[in-house]
Amino acid sequence: MPTYAILGATGKTGGAILDHLIKAPNTNVNAYVRSKAKLLGQKPGLENNKNVKIFEGPLSDIPLIASTLSPSVDAAFCVVAINENIPGLRIAQDTVDSVIATLCHLRNKDVNFKPPKLLFLSSSALNATMSGEFPAVLMAVLSRAMSHLYADLRFAEENLRLHQSWLDATFVQPGGLSQDVQKGHRLSLDKASDLVSYPDLAAATIHINTTDDMDPMASITRDDA
What we know:
Elements: E1 3-7, H1 12-23, E2 28-33, H2 36-42, E3 52-56, H3 62-68, E4 75-78, H4 91-109, E5 117-121, H5 136-145, H6 147-161, E6 169-172, E7 176-178, E8 185-188, E9 195-197, H7 198-209, E10 217-222
Parallel strand pairs: 1-2, 1-4, 2-3, 4-5, 5-6, 6-10, 7-9
Antiparallel strand pairs: 8-10
């Protein structure tokens, strides 16, 4: 029975991934949140789901994150995020720092420990190939408007790449995200959709996890894109 971890289960992406996974048969989920009450408010009845374990606390709590990423976890969806352009933003960097510190801790405890596959939510705006079809003026405006958010993601990606000799990590790089229903998705290595819904992003991220030959960077497009 596969076990998955979601870091950021109260966010729009994490919540959508959780919705998909709890519908899958014979699947266990470790859901990390900073507020258990918030998660249970979003997902009434979740506390009665025996296949879901909830881990509550700060990202800096390494023993807590170690429990979330226990040796039985096959893949971890790292989707802690906010959609605000705040100076000094570090949420993506803090997530990567915590995950790396935790996995180093687990590896030091057990030389046979196999880290879970990591799927890290990023943005196609950081990938010139994937965002190349968008007008240069639009990308310039986005880069300025979301400069702090993109810088946080960029530094987080760079840090995680330093550990790819021993970590299996894929950067999920969607284009714009929208509050829409699920319409279907396609994975791409060279093109990003202008908009993709959170349910489609969630389904695509789970799809990437099951694709063994996926490039370390993957973009998500709408099925009709």
